[in-house]
Fold:
Amino acid sequence: MAFKIGDIVSFLHEGGTGTILKMKGDQAEVMMDHGFEEWIPLAELVPRKALNIGEVQAKDRPRTSLEKGRAKAKAAELIEADLHFEALVDFPKNFSSHEKLQIQLNEARKAIDKARRAGVKKVVLIHGVGQGRLRDEIYAMLERMDRIVFYDASFARYGKGATEVELR
Structure:
């Protein structure tokens, strides 16, 4: 199957869709519909074809360019990354504690890198309360990073289970 950059794809072994960003050899970097990028073998991708439904009549009034700009600006001021392991993989029982922690820390790093590339200034890492091991490891990772400030996220919105990172 011939894929190209920009193709929308589904996956053989998991739900969801994504868009091909880069291709190298027999793998493609895919922007997943949950907002993270991942390298996936081409053999595990299934092309999605756009449905030609013709002209769609707008039910509500069309948005003005000013409203579109405000919505875009508001959406781009913050990235939230849910690090609960069940939200990251399909079969969480198949992983050791160490593997789970490494995957969660990797997702946190990806969210911060994505925010830097997109020019977003804040990232909220939702780690949950639990025993505090993930939070401690995230703090240790963040302490080693340059040009950031981090602190507990809004208690009213996230409870005690999130850390907010400001990129400088």
About this structure: The first strand starts at residue 8 and ends at 11. The longest helix spans residues 97-118. The beta strands are 8-11, 17-24, 27-32, 37-41, 45-47, 79-82, 122-126, 148-152, 162-167.
